Amino acid sequence: MADGDTSAGHDAGSSSNADTTAPTASTDAVEPPYRIVLNSIDEWLASLEFSVREIEAAVAGGLAGGFQAALVLQLYDTDAIRRVGGGFGSPTLDGGWIAMFALGVLFALPFSLVVSRSIDSFVGTVMALSSRNEPLRRLLTPLLKRSALATTTFALGNGYGIVVGAVGVLFLVPGWLPAAMGVSTPFSNATVAGVVGVLAWAIYGGMLGLVYGLILES
Fold it and tell me: How many angstroms separate the CA atoms of 198 and 102, rounded?
């Protein structure tokens, strides 16, 4: 009986010790606030699910689109491309072209993020619209059969380029150039030059989407 009591007492003591150490283990498991923030950032970055192929496609599309946009600007007005470079501290043709390539790649990354996460729904929407509209079906069916992804990303790119051009050329540039170069630009920039700028970025977006889709399909 004594042994049993001793064993029981020993078990109770062990149980008591476990009880006293449990809160300590729980307290140690609490992560510091900075670690929680870093973990949240890591989880968010992982959720973006960028593949190497998508990044390559975005960079290639951004460079191709940036080239097209810069060419349009220079053909319209050589000073326009210089002003682009001037906005980044290099008001020369070389500086303008380098800036356009850099902006082309920069703007391509958000486009890739949006497309990569919802391309299936975009393709389905395009196919549904083409099936309900006879003229649209005649136009899109051959393109969709040959390259459904590139056709869809081309259309999305055009819309994306128009938005980039409208926001950047009509609103951001008039605020940026006076600060960077001391050049006075009318707010909203609703001039022929502004319209050409929006057109250049619309062409950029179409080329971005086309190259992006073709690379992912290859």
Answer: 18
pLDDT at 197 over 90: no
- Give the chain's length: 218
Give the C-alpha separation, 71 to 175, whole Å: 24
Closest-CA residue to 128 (of 140, 116, 117, 114)? 140
Spatial contact of 204 and 104, defined as CB atoms under 8 Å apart: yes
Helices (H) and strands (E) in the chain, counts: 8, 0
| 3-state percent helix, strand, coil for the chain, nearest multiple of 5 | 90, 0, 10
Q: Is 39 helix (H, G, I), strand (E, B) or coil?
A: helix
Q: How many CB atoms lie within 10 A of CB 217?
A: 13
H runs (alpha helix) in the chain? 2-28, 33-48, 52-76, 78-86, 93-132, 134-167, 173-181, 192-217
Token pair in block for residue 59: 């960079």
pTM here is 0.66
Count the Cβ atoms, other than its own, within 10 Å of residue 174: 17
Cα pseudo-dihedral 79, 85, 89, 92, rounded to 10: -60
Q: For the beta carbon of residue 208, count every other beta carbon within 10 angstroms.
A: 36
pLDDT in tens, 119-153: 767 767 767 777 777 776 776 666 666 677 788 88
| Nearest Cα residue to 65 out of 164, 191, 166 | 164
